[in-house]
């Protein structure tokens, strides 16, 4: 009789690592983008939005992938590189889809709420939706690449 071993799949490590990494580097990228605008584009108008947005995008992308890699590697899970490569592919797709959906829903709700109510609603919904998307992408990447437990009737 063989005792069952508790083999963690790495879902929680992937999700927490991705969340911490993405949030940290998302804000760092935004901050560096704003500093760039202040230093090198003092008379910028609308084009002053481009560096912080690019910084947020790159920070979110790199932070999510790097955080997932560090968490899975630290916990000695299998198939870390495969999970991280898939997450690196899924993250920009998820960010772009989130942005399109967020803009679309904001425009739909804009006719029902005043400007101040809409601003308050966006400031509450945006971080929650970003966090949920980060967790879903990390879970999906780990689910699609999770190591299968060895079958008890196979010989290896």
TrEMBL record:
The chain crosses the membrane at residues 12-33, 53-72, 84-105, 125-144. Keywords: Membrane, Transmembrane, Transmembrane helix. This is Diguanylate cyclase/phosphodiesterase. It comes from Nostoc cycadae WK-1.
């Amino acid at each position: 009789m063989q005792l069952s071993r508790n083999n963690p799949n790495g879902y929680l490590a992937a999700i927490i690592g991705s969340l911490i990494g993405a949030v940290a580097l998302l804000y760092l990228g935004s901050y560096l983008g704003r500093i760039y605008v202040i230093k090198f584009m003092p008379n910028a108008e609308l084009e002053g939005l481009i560096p912080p947005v690019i910084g947020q995008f790159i920070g979110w992308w790199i932070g999510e992938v790097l955080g997932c890699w560090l968490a899975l590697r630290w916990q000695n899970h299998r198939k870390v590189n495969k999970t991280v490569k898939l997450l690196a592919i899924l993250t920009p797709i998820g960010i772009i889809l989130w942005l399109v959906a967020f803009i679309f829903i904001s425009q739909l709700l804009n006719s029902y709420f005043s400007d101040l109510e809409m601003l308050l609603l966006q400031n509450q919904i945006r971080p929650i939706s970003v966090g949920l998307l980060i967790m879903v992408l990390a879970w999906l990447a780990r689910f699609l690449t999770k190591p299968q437990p060895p079958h008890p009737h196979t010989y290896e």
